[in-house]
TrEMBL record:
Keywords: DNA-binding, Transcription, Transcription regulation. One of its GO terms (cellular component) is cytosol. GO terms for molecular function: DNA binding; DNA-binding transcription factor activity. This is Crp/Fnr family transcriptional regulator. It comes from Bradyrhizobium niftali. PANTHER family: CRP FAMILY TRANSCRIPTIONAL REGULATORY PROTEIN (PTHR24567), HTH-TYPE TRANSCRIPTIONAL REGULATOR ARCR (PTHR24567:SF74). InterPro entries: cNMP-bd_dom, cNMP-bd_dom_sf, Env_Response_Regulators, HTH_CRP, RmlC-like_jellyroll, WH-like_DNA-bd_sf, WH_DNA-bd_sf.
Length: 216
């Protein structure tokens, strides 16, 4: 992030295609022109750090392609995934904070938009954008509550079923991540996840077809 602020001084090269970007998100579609002028495109390689714990927020980020994860180290030294973002805004809670409380790392090659922080907060004075932002935060809050509820469940089977029922539709979900990464999101070891999936298949409780999981 060193020297990042100066990148907002000159126009982004090449110019951003806002017509295409507006198709990525209803929020980008109504982002005021004043904020668009202070938006830059960034590209990160896999395992590159976007920001670190203790850095001061300078921008609001939107993931256009790839994936960014917010990570925090546990006392045991492992990584705790706080947020996974693909095609969406990242670290929304940092908007009114003086420092980040976690690290943001690219899980794969990733392209992002960086909207200057002050320009983004000014955009919230525009009613159309503000209303969309409030709706977005409400959806994220529901997702966070579901995630918290899932982690409170005692068994791996309960967490798997809860995930499929809340994140999928009609008892079916298509995973957009590896099972190892999914295990981390569920708060399980990957061995425990694989073992439980095998047990559920054997009991005819679950059908696993590559990345598609269907409750029976």
């Amino acid at each position: 992030m060193a020297g990042f602020e100066k990148d907002f001084v000159t126009p982004s090269r090449p110019a951003l295609d806002w017509k295409s970007l507006s198709l990525e998100s209803p929020l980008l579609a109504v982002l005021p022109e004043s904020a668009r002028r202070l938006t830059r495109s960034l590209e990160l390689q896999r395992e590159s750090t976007l920001f670190s714990r203790g850095d001061g927020p300078q921008a609001m980020f939107f993931v256009v392609s790839g994936e960014i994860r917010l990570l925090r180290r546990s006392k045991a030294g492992g990584e705790v995934v706080l947020q996974r973002t693909r095609r969406g805004f990242l670290a929304e809670a940092s908007l009114d904070q003086s420092t980040y409380h976690c690290d943001a790392v690219a899980a794969e090659p990733t392209r992002l938009l960086a909207i200057r922080r002050r320009a983004f907060t000014d955009a919230l004075a525009v009613r159309g954008f503000r209303d969309r932002w409030i709706a977005h935060l409400a959806r994220e809050l529901r997702k966070a509550r579901a995630h918290s509820e899932r982690l409170s469940l005692k068994t791996a089977r309960e967490r798997i079923v809860h995930f499929i029922e809340t994140e999928g539709e009609g008892g079916m979900v298509d995973l957009n991540q590896s099972k190892k990464d999914w295990a981390s999101e569920l708060g399980l070891t990957h061995e425990a996840l694989y073992r439980t999936l095998a047990q559920m298949e054997k009991r005819d409780e679950l059908e696993v077809d590559q990345s598609r999981l269907t409750l029976r």
